[in-house]
Amino acid sequence: MNTSANLPEQTVHIVDDDEALRDSLIWLLESEGYAVATYASAEEFLAAWSPALAGCLLLDVRMPGMSGLELYEKLAAQHSTLPVIFITGHGDVPMAVSALKKGAVDFIEKPFNDQDMLRLIANCLEAERSERTQRRQDAETARRLDQLTTREREVLDLIVAGRLNKQIADDLGISIKTVEVHRARVMEKMDVSSLAELVQMVMSAGK
C-alpha cells in the first residue's frame, strides 16, 4: 500500500466498542490488502494518535465514555488530517450529518454493505494520499522561497502578478538585465524549468 518510500503506510484505523464489528471489518479490509488497526474506545485511539498517522479513520458515533463525535472534535482541535468516516446506527444519523458539516468525509449506517464501505475507504485513502503529497510539496516550496533574497522575492511576486521584464524593471527601478539575472536565480533556486511551472508552484502553495 505504500505509494512512496518516504510516505508512511496508509492504515485504516477502526474505533468501535463492538468487538464483533471490529473483527468483521478486519477480515473485510485485510482481505482487500489494507493495513488495519483497531481500538475498542475513543480514549484508546486518542492515546495512540500522532500527527504522523496516515490513512483514514472509521469511527463509531456512539460509544461508552468518549463518543465518536467528541473524539472527532478533539482530533480537529489537534489539526488531525485523517479523513473520518462515521459508522452510525439509524437513530444517530442527525449526529453524523452534524459531523459532516464540521468536516467529516462521510457516514455509513449499520448494517452496511461491504462494497459501499470499501468504496468509501478507497475514496478516503486516495484523497488523503493526494492531500499529504500536496502538503509535502507546499512545504518544499516554502523552504525554497525562504532561500530567496528580498530582491529575488520582489521579482518573483511581480512575475506571478503577470508583469513583463520591462515592467518589472520600471517597477523596481532597475535594469532589464538585472531583472533577467534575478529571474534566472529565482528559477534556479525554485528548481523549475519554465515560468508557467514557477507560477503554478507558487500559486498552488498559496505563497
UniProtKB/TrEMBL annotation:
The modification 4-aspartylphosphate is found at residue 60. GO terms for molecular function: DNA binding. It comes from the Bacteria. Pfam families: GerE (PF00196), Response_reg (PF00072). GO terms for biological process: phosphorelay signal transduction system; regulation of DNA-templated transcription. The keyword Transcription applies. Keywords: DNA-binding, Phosphoprotein, Transcription, Transcription regulation, Two-component regulatory system. SUPFAM superfamilies: C-terminal effector domain of the bipartite response regulators, CheY-like. This is FixJ family two-component response regulator. The lineage of its organism: Bacteria, Pseudomonadati, Pseudomonadota, Betaproteobacteria, Rhodocyclales. It comes from Niveibacterium umoris. Gene3D superfamilies: 3.40.50.2300, Winged helix-like DNA-binding domain superfamily/Winged helix DNA-binding domain. Residues 141-206 form the HTH luxR-type domain. Residues 11-125 form the Response regulatory domain.
